[in-house]
Write a structure and sequence with these properties.
Elements (H helix, E strand, L loop, with lengths): L7 E8 L8 E7 L5 E7 L2 E2 L9 E4 L2 H4 L5 E5 L5 H4 L2 H8 L5 E3 L1 H13 L8 E2 L5 E4 L2 E7 L8 E7 L2 E5 L17 H10 L1 E7 L12 H13 L5 E4 L5 H13 L3 E5 L1 H12 L12 H4 L7 E5 L9 H6 L13 E4 L8 H13 L3 E3 L16 H11 L1 E7 L3 H13 L4 E2 L6 E6 L4 E5 L4 E5 L2 E4 L3 H12 L1 E8 L5 E10 L13 H13 L3 H4 L2 H20 L4 E8 L1
Parallel strand pairs: 3-6, 6-7, 7-8, 12-13, 13-19, 14-16, 14-17, 15-16, 17-18, 19-20, 25-27
Antiparallel strand pairs: 1-2, 1-21, 2-3, 4-5, 5-23, 9-10, 10-11, 11-12, 21-22, 23-24, 25-26
């Protein structure tokens, strides 16, 4: 049995600090040599131009892999990809039999993640809203909040050393359209009883005022959609079911039938109907039915608000969709924001649509908002701190600048202590003053095909180099006396002639440099494969730099005959 005098209460973020997304949080209780753990959220982030061939990125759970039998439970706060997207990828690495808990909508989507990764026999324990669960030394209670997805929950973690409120993602929306409003009574009750620490969303800490209400967005969408003629496409985040419902209602009032376009739009809507989040969904039309309706009676609700090439709107913009096209007199409404880093893809897509004569309407072009954030602005943060009144502020879910600013803002609200964590920081919350006491192994794993590999693995480094610098292969045949029988023969990929064609004639100079280098080697040295590879690679790289202005990856194959 744990001696309370030896016990510590610790918080360990392995994802979501120094970045927005890819959340993985662990809480531990007990002496340093024998802690019990619970995990909160297991999320992903997404690849970009700097990760060629990589779509999904997860936190590295290496530290937790040694704690498998000490993990008492895994809790999911809500169903966004950056909170549940890695559950099927990371769970097998943990080798734990700990139960996984979630409320119905989140459980529905998370279960699909497990099945997708072959974990058909692993099930998620479905909890009602407001449920309480005991997990080792932790008593965990779900508290209803509002966010941009159904059933967002904070978690109140009661331990012998104090209570922690882990907010997850949240905002304060008095009119969320779907689901209950923020449970202010539960939050204030926690504050009255005493809260040791609040681990809190930092995404919009630089935004003054409040994030805005989905109720206002619905009113504005109804007015906007009702004023338009021609075909209309609305793109938004599929996970924002309240927004999806608002677009459907706006279409109904405008006398338009709705066609869902995009896999995620169907998947999320099906989950919302299956779990009762959406009730009395009007009849929707299929993509192949849409062509039979008059333009003024049709609305497409599409994925692709972030310019994703393979999403529905991206394919429509390229005339690459088999059923749907847009043109002169049609309108695309972006009921979404531009996520930093996605600007180029979004603007390229909007330009392609504009080229077709499609009118583009974004949130900045309307009198009232047609999009609001799902994260708390400063006034909402202030109200949360007034309700909860924690002793310690632990900002998470933000880049470094967000976390540092949030800590300073919390101190201005009379919070006595604030910690600014980085991924891997082991933070002792009690006993004593909150402080970072260790840093554990942490990082990122890339889903490379079907394998999770370290971000700095050799294969990923090579792929970046291939993307940036190109590739040249060199083959040479040498006999046992060190005489060249054939070659060197060169082939290149990713290098260009001045007219833009693949490198061909320009390789003559490189070929000559390789021949010169091998001819100047003594026979004895030619009998050493490693020496031949070194000399040829060096000569080819130097010649390519002179000819093409870049040093490609050079792969030398030595054949002995």
């Amino acid at each position: 049995m744990t001696n309370k005098s030896d016990a510590e209460l610790v918080f360990l973020p392995l994802g979501g600090c120094g970045e927005i997304g890819m959340n993985l949080n662990a809480y531990g209780y007990g002496p340093a040599h024998d802690r019990r753990w619970i995990l909160i959220d297991v999320g992903v982030t997404f690849g970009g131009d700097d990760t060629p061939g990589i779509d999904l990125i997860t936190p590295d759970p290496a530290f937790l892999e040694d704690q498998g039998d000490k993990i008492d439970a895994i809790f999911l706060t809500h169903a966004h990809e950056d909170h549940i997207g890695a559950i099927g990828l990371i769970l097998p690495r943990l080798q734990t039999k700990a139960p996984i808990y979630a409320t119905p909508f989140t459980a529905h989507l998370a279960q699909a993640k497990l099945i997708e990764r072959g974990l058909k026999h692993t099930s998620i324990d479905v909890l009602p809203l407001g449920a309480e669960v005991e997990a080792g030394p932790f008593k965990v209670r779900y508290i209803t909040l509002t966010h941009s997805i159904p059933e967002p929950n904070a978690l109140a973690l009661e331990t012998p050393l104090g209570t922690i409120l882990h907010t997850g993602d949240w905002k304060i929306d008095p009119d969320p359209q779907l689901g209950d409003a923020t449970d202010v009574e539960a939050l204030s009750g926690l504050g009255d009883a005493g809260v040791l620490a609040m681990v809190c969303d930092s995404t919009n800490v630089f935004v003054e005022g409040e994030s805005g209400s989905e109720g206002v967005v619905r009113e504005n969408l109804i007015k906007l959609i009702g004023s338009l003629t021609g075909r209309i496409a609305v793109t938004t985040f599929a996970s924002n079911v309240a927004r999806v419902a608002s677009v459907i209602e706006a279409a109904r009032q405008a006398g338009r039938s709705v066609c869902l376009v995009g896999r995620s739009m169907h998947k999320i809507t099906d989950a919302a109907v299956a779990t009762g989040v959406i009730q009395d969904l009007p009849d929707l039309i299929s993509e192949d039915q849409a062509g039979s309706l008059p333009d003024d009676n049709l609305l497409f609700l599409c994925t692709g608000s972030q310019g994703e090439a393979r999403a529905a709107l991206g394919r429509i913009s390229r005339d690459d969709h088999r059923h749907i096209s847009l043109g002169e007199g049609d309108t695309v409404i972006f009921s979404s924001r531009v996520i930093p880093g996605n600007e180029k893809g979004i603007y390229d897509m909007q330009n392609a649509l504009a080229e077709k004569g499609v009118r583009i309407i974004t949130d900045r072009m309307t009198d009232g908002p047609i999009h609001v954030s799902g994260h708390p602005a400063r006034d909402e943060l202030r109200r949360m701190y007034q309700w909860v009144r924690p002793k310690i502020s632990v900002p998470v879910h933000g880049e470094r600048r967000h976390i540092v600013e949030h800590a300073a803002y919390a101190k201005s609200l009379q919070v006595s202590e604030a910690v600014t964590p980085r991924n891997g920081d082991l933070i002792r919350l009690a006993p004593g003053k909150a402080q970072i006491i260790d840093n554990v192994p942490n990082g990122r794993l890339y889903l490379d095909g079907s394998r999770l590999v370290p971000a700095e693995s050799e294969g990923i480094r090579d792929r970046r180099a291939l993307a940036n610098w190109g590739y040249v292969s060199v083959a040479i045949a040498i006999d046992e006396d060190g005489d060249v029988v054939d070659g060197p023969l060169l082939a290149a990929r990713g290098l260009s002639e001045p007219d833009g064609s693949a490198a061909d004639e320009s390789l003559i100079d490189v070929d000559e440099a390789a021949e010169l280098a091998i001819s100047e080697m003594k026979r004895r040295k030619r009998q050493n494969d490693e020496e031949v590879e070194r000399v040829l690679a060096r000569a080819v790289k130097k010649s390519c730099e002179r000819t093409f202005g870049r040093k490609p990856i050079v792969d030398v194959s030595v054949l002995r005959v």
